[in-house]
Structures are given as structure tokens and as C-alpha cells.
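User: Round two. Same drill as before: sequence, then structure, for each protein.

Assistant: Same drill it is. First protein:
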Amino acid sequence: MFSISHGAAPLTTTKFRNIKPTPEKLLRQQTARIYTGSPRVKLFASASPAASQDLTLPLNEGSSSELIKNISTSHKIEFESFALVDNGKDRLPASQEEYNLMLKAFPAALSIGVFPPVVVVQFGDLPPKPWPLTVAGLPVLFTTKENTIGFEYGRPGGSFKKALDDYDAREHVTRELFAAAIAHFEQELSIPILSILNLAGPWIVTIPDGVEFSSLPYLLAKTLCHFKYASETEEHIGPAFRNTEPAGTVWDQTLYQILQPGIMLSSGRGLNELLTTSGIVVEDNNGYRYLTLASPGFPFSRESVYHSNANGALLGRVHSRLTGTNIALLRLSSSQGFRNETFGVGLPDGTNILPQKICGIKDPFSVRKYDEVSMNNPFSGYSTGVHVGVQQSKVPSDDPLVDHTWVTNQWTYIGNGHDEPMDGWCGSPVLDENGNVVSLIRFLTPSGFAVGDAASTLELGGLTLSSSL
């Protein structure tokens, strides 16, 4: 049983954040809808129906600076006449007219390219932030570089062979399909692959160095298959965020009496104080309750867990870690209050998004491509993203007689326009629209992808979501 020692600041209990992190993501929670019959743009707050406010502006060839600003700061850009995503299925633009309409939404753009799962918009100079998350339903990436698609896919298979042609990964992938894919490489081709990712359609497979590309399939389950050598893959260990506050950024360092997802956690005093975000509370078969943590935020030499920083409350020490993941567990005392629900969010117009109760744990394989998910952490506040992929990675083992374990990760696109310290996001729960936890953030990429450990891994370890106390 762990006791809580109180810091100098008073503990606070609230369903809304005591301090709003900045930059405030709610400034982006609006949608620009482009009506093509008589080209006009309608902007409205989409986060809360009660807060909806309409603003209609003309969209002409000589678009005004006010219109450009409103479009570029919209959370979503949609077109009346077409969408590039329908029920989780993406497509390329069907005509030059559709390309032209997307270009019209970004008058300063040099070019626009559609490479599912992203739309890449190239500029001479990047526009002011924040930037949109999606355009026509697909995640959008802003860049000044030529010939970039925001992600290094690797190289296609060197043969024209097709594999697993009885499956179709173009619309949906399943655990069964992943198991069949792993078996194909390891048993039929005798290639001990290290990881396999389906990124909204295309496959990216990590293979041992030296494997001949001529032996690799070009199509896997009717979908293009790309390969990377292990030495070409960047290893992401953990958050390791240095406590140096960027100018103009406010974090929520409030000490909350009732623990809940999205509060700040610290590794304590030391050369580098590591700051991360709390996850959810789960319990084992004996009724013991645990708070999930970002494991790399608490190295083996620094396992004390503080909230919210080194001068705050000592919650205890890391109890255990889940093999092959970035999930650690802090066992809570029987008297420690907690709430398995997100913080409420105050909108700029004075209305509120109420706290969302966490209802359950959802397998990433059950999430539809391009469905919206949300996060709420002490560094950036509330933000949303788009589900774009599922990955399985092999957990190394030195014992040749033991079958390898495969862990599952979820990939979310959160946009590439963030300035706040994103390493601190690690540990944050990723929720679907119904309040189910899909993953716990493991790391973030510079191009705007958040990779999380599947929350269903907790269930495999005999843990279940706990009721609030």
C-alpha cells in the first residue's frame, strides 16, 4: 500500500482542468464545408451542437486573407460534391475538378497530392498554425518539401508475386489476416519478420538485414506491400522529456486529489525530470487497482511516481511493466480516489464539452479506418486525431524453444502542426467516440503520427477496466 505525501500546493478535485494547456486545441474544433454549386465556405463549431455558429464567406479565385485564415485554422475541410473517404474506404480524386477544388481551399499551395492515408499539400512558406487535420475525409499534411508523403514506406517487394489473395486488406484488416500474414512470411518464406504494419491499406514490413527483395511479394491481401530492413527502422524507446518549458506554453501542473486520465506525472528530481501523462485505472482478479503509466518515463533507476511534478505528491513506485510494451503499472492504495473519465473542456464561447466516462477497452482491429479519436493531456489539452493503422511487432526472446510474442499497436494521425512538447503525451489514452480506450500513446513521429500500445494488451494480462472510486 502506498501513501501520498503532499507537496506545498493544495490538492484540487474538479471535472474540468484547473489550468488550460496552451495552445488550446479547441480553437481548431470547427469545420470548413465547401459548397461547390455556388462556391461558398460555411464555418461552424462542431464540438458541441449547442455551440454551433455559422459563418458564410465567398470562395472565389481571389480569395480574401480572412477566408484563407478561416480555412487554414479549420479542424476539417469538407466538400459538398465529394469525399475521399466513405465508411472507412478511401479513394483517389475521380477528376481534375476534384483536385482543383482542393487546391482552391489552399490558395497559397504550390501543389496537392493524394497518397492515402494522407493528402500532402506543398507550400513555398508554411501558413500560420494551427493547421487542419483532414481534407475531404483524409488526414492532411502540410510541407515545403517536394516529393514527400510524410512517411517512409520502404521499398516494394521485388517479385510480381501475390500472397494471401483470398483476403482483401483494402477496406479492413483483422487479427486473422495479420496471423495469416505472419505465418506466410515465417513459415512459407522462412523470413523471420520483425514487425508488420497496415497503414490504412499499404503494408510496411520490417525484415532482417540481408533478405533478398526478389523473394518478397508485391501484393499482400490485394494490397501493395513495402519492406524495410531492420537497420533502416528507427527505434523509439520512450518519452524522456526534459523539463524545459518552451516560451509561451502553459501546462496543467495542478495537483488533483482525484486521479484520472490526462494528469501530469513526474519521475521526480534528478538530472532530467521526465514528465508524462497518466492513463487509465485497471484492476486484477484480486481487486487490486493500478494506474497505467508510460514505462520509459520511469526508468528502473527512477521508479518513484509523482503528481504533478517533483514538488508535488508522491503516489508510489512502479509495481510492474508489461513485456514488449511501454505500459507500466502503479498500484494504488485502497483509499486513493480515482475517476475513469476524461476532463471536461471549456469552449471559447463559454459552453462546455462534458467529461467523458471511459466505458470499456476496444481492440484496434475493431476501429474503422479514418474514424475520429480523441486525447486529453496536460501539455496540449483536448485534441482529436484519425485512426489510420494497426501494427504487430515481435517481442525478442533469447530462448529458441519459446514462441515469440507479438504485441499490437494502434496508429493515429494527429496532424503535423503541433508546437507543444509532444513527448509528454506518452501514456495518454486514445478514445473512440463512444468513450472506449483504444490505445495508450507510446511515441509520436515528426510527421504527425501517434503510435500507441493497444489497450487490449491489458486484458491479455488479466486486467480489466476499474469502476471509479
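Second protein:
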Amino acid sequence: MFDLDNCPSGQAARLRYGFEDHVTAYARALAWFGKWPRSGLEHDNFLGDGDNKPMDASHVCHHDACIIHVAYEPAYMNQERKECCQIARRLRQEEKDIPEHCSTHSPPCLLQHAALRTNEAFSIQFDVLRQARGLSREASRFRRPRRHLFSTFEGQLPCRFPAINVHVANLVTDRPVSRGKRGKPVSFCVFCKSIKAFDTAAGYWGHLVNKHDGIDTSMRLDEIRRTAAEWTVYWEENSDGGKRGHATKQRLEQVKQAGFDWDVVLAWELR
């Protein structure tokens, strides 16, 4: 039970709960039964009947396998929380301090939990459980993935990435980020649960267009703008002179324009 070899992968199907003819995610059922009794209107909403807004179980820790940190709330709020997860992981990637909670939602998102990748979260949990059972801690650790977008790979407590417990409005500190020599950008998808890396701007942007239809276009546009800025700096420093007619170079110029929107991205016909 406490051996990582027996642990489901991050892409494994989540637990389901069934009662009579209705089946839903186990975490959603837990959030539903967390407050009892429920009204008839709430029951209809849970089953998806009626004209009310759909309700979800939101993982405030941003880990789908978790059955502890869940909140029963409207589906649109569940979608809004994704931005908090992006903020947490971006702060960690830039080696900036990560607050304990967000200042947007109630209950608040657990930003330091959100900054962890799924394999890190599992590794930490296994380490804690094995300590409680008096078992060896070495067997509880995942190996660091070949392409890991953070400077540390967390497998034990306390975590080594910068974490603070301050006023939650301080999402970004002024602490300078230490950077080495600038190399060719590698983009890691901030929307994927598993680690997916792309060494071309077009490849990553095509992935955002074609693989993440469920993500709001404004969030995907922000990610395109962010990575476009990285590629612009790289090409200006290394190869701008020979790339003026390149399709990606032209797209980088379009991203800078005031009228840049999702229609422009679709016109790129990325694959």
C-alpha cells in the first residue's frame, strides 16, 4: 500500500460514486454530503436538472486526486480557480515567494499546494505515511522527471521552494530572480496536469489552441503573450537578423499589437 510502484498514475481515472442511476465524481459526492440535509432545489441542481447554474466540487489544493480539500460551489467558480493555480506555479518557476492562500476565493485556494506537481504531492504524502508506519523513507520518493520546470523536486516536508505566510494580497515579491545565461526557451504547459514541454513557440501555441478548448480564451491569450515575450527576447539576442521573414517572427509582431485577440490566433491555423 505504501509503495510507489502500486500508486496509480496521474492520468488514472478518478474515483467515482454511484447511487441508484446517478454516477458522479467521488470528490463531488463528498462535497455534496459535507453539508446535510440538502433542499430539493439543491438536489435537482446536483443531478443537473432545472435551470440553475451547475455545481461542482472544486479542489482548493488544485490536485484532482485529493478527496480532502474540496468545496461544493458553482462550476464557473471552479473554472475561475484555475488562474490561481497558474499564479502559484508561475511564482515557483520564477523562484518567488508563494503565499499560503489566495485572496480571491472563499474558501481560498491553497497556493503552496497548487505549486506542487502531482508526482511531488504523491511523493510527499507517501513519505509522511511511511514515517508514521516506521518504514524506510527512500522507497517513498519519485525520481525527478527529466524535464521538470522547477529548480527543486519536492518529495519531503518541509518543501524547499520559497513559501511565506503573509498577507495574501502580496502575490509577487520584489525579490530579484537569479537567471543564468539565456538559452532557447522551453515552454511547459501550465494547463496540463502532467508535464508537457515544447521547444518551439508554434508547437506550444498549437497545443493551447487544439488541446485546451475548455480553458477560457483570455487565459490562453495571456499564456501566448507571456511566451511570446520570452521568444522575442531570445530572437533579438540570438537570431533576429536571419528570422525576419519567419512565420513565428511575424506572429510575435502580431502579439504586440493592440488588436491582438483570439481571432488572430485562429487565423494562424496552428496544428
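The two ends are 42 Å apart (CA to CA).

User: Perfect.
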